[in-house]
Amino acid sequence: MRRRPADFRRPVRRRFSHWIWALFGLFTIVGLLLFVVHHNHSEDRIEQSVLERNSRIERVAHDRLNFTEEISSATSFSRQLAEQITLAKAYVVIAKEHSNLHLAWELSSKIRSSQLLLSKAVMRGEPITLEEAEPIIKSLSSLIFKAQDAHYDISTTIMTMKSHIQALEERANAATVQSTVFGQVAAEALPKSLHCLNVKLIADWMKYPSFQKMADERKNSQRVVDNNLYHFCIFSDNVLATSVVVNSTVSNADHPKQLVFHIVTNGINYGAMQTWFLSNDFKGSTIEVQKIEDFSWLNASYAPVLKQMLDPNTRAYYFGGLQDLAVDPKLRNPKYMLLLNHLRFYIPEIYPQLEKVVFLDDDVVVQKDLTPLFSVDLHGNVNGVVETCLEAFHRYYKYLNFSNSIISSKFDPQACGWAFGMNVFDLIAWRKANVTARYHYWQEQNADGLLWKPGTLPPGLLTFYGLTEPLDRRWHVLGLGYDLNIDNRLIESAAVIHFNGNMKPWLKLAITRYRPLWKRYLNQSHTYFEDCITS
């Protein structure tokens, strides 16, 4: 009789353990069913969001919320709020335009609440919960429906938003044009310090006849036509910039006394240029200064570009303001009207007795001895250049109008571009190929200005097509007047660095990182430098 209770209790314990395992299996099945439901995207969005939140909370225990993934999820509350905020903002604009200020205020209030909730979610690193999102989503949806009931239908919304986008684009374009214009004005304006220097130098030129006598002596020197020497030509109206070019060249030359510099300026700056170079020593090099007004052969009947410059419509285009905003202000730059910029196409006429010259722009700095350039074999070509087509956009198609058959029939749009600024010209080959006549031909073809953008490079690409010899890239490194990220190693290895662009080193616009490279060659010992420049 006593064994029966014992026999009865053992089966009870077994049945109890069976129940535990059965319940555990049941919970496991339920969990698996929930997991399947979660991955099969139930139609009930709220339940699905809750399940997603549960799975995300488990992941958050190991890693904080990735808000980018959260707001990209099609079922997250963050995504719903972000979409409603965007739509509500559009209706705020429309409501204000229809003078429904109360609705606009209500929408703005809910937008701020939604943004605050999104910010909290980011700060705490956890997804937005159903309890947090539901009241805001419902109230914001109600206001959006209210806006739709007020006849703010989708077509009205689209038209309103299009008009606002168009207005913003016009404002952005106007601001861009204005910024470009201001930048150009700053780049073209003569700083007070340079103006002061010019005034003082011109005053000395007029005051001391000895300067004019010395200038005549230099002009008659046999060194200026001696082809055993190294000849450089610079065309500029900027005294200080030209001085840096000359000083940097002689400072880095192995034999500076064998260098001859041929400078051409305009009548306004001729006295200042002469006085500066006559009153400073440049290590025994020879310096000849001429003014463009003395070239009587350079007239409208000979030079098509000069004829175009004298045309009233052309002058109105460059000097008549910026009435047409459709035209890029950069293309209206009056520097394109300076004949000094086009003298590079007349070098054999200016120096009929010379055989080879190196042309230098006034915004370059020389860092190595340039005399080896005169022994570079150009293989019968006229123009030794550094090509610039390492970047894809420096191809012919970038500068020329290939929709015109005159261009497309004669030139390869993928031909490699190059740069003026440091060029080796074989004047014997130039005269043989009659390059200046080619330049005249293309200027006449472009009388209507439709073949290329303004400037001297596009006609140069046409004129010297098939007559250029590529040089090592280290001879000429460009971009110091606009590019902030030039490799220091490239700058250090360069023979010539070029400040092409608006940020010239003598302006306040100059890139601070590069300016010392130019400033080190300023002749700071001159009295006028201290009076005008440093003050």
Automatic annotation (TrEMBL):
Keywords: Cell wall biogenesis/degradation, Glycoprotein, Glycosyltransferase, Golgi apparatus, Membrane, Signal-anchor, Transferase, Transmembrane, Transmembrane helix
EC numbers: 2.4.1.-
Family annotation (InterPro entries): GAUT, Glyco_trans_8, Nucleotide-diphossugar_trans
Cellular component terms (Gene Ontology): Golgi membrane
Membrane association type: Single-pass type II membrane protein
Compartments where found: Golgi apparatus membrane
Family according to the record: Belongs to the glycosyltransferase 8 family.
Record's protein name: Hexosyltransferase
Species, as recorded: Cucurbita moschata
Gene: LOC111429729
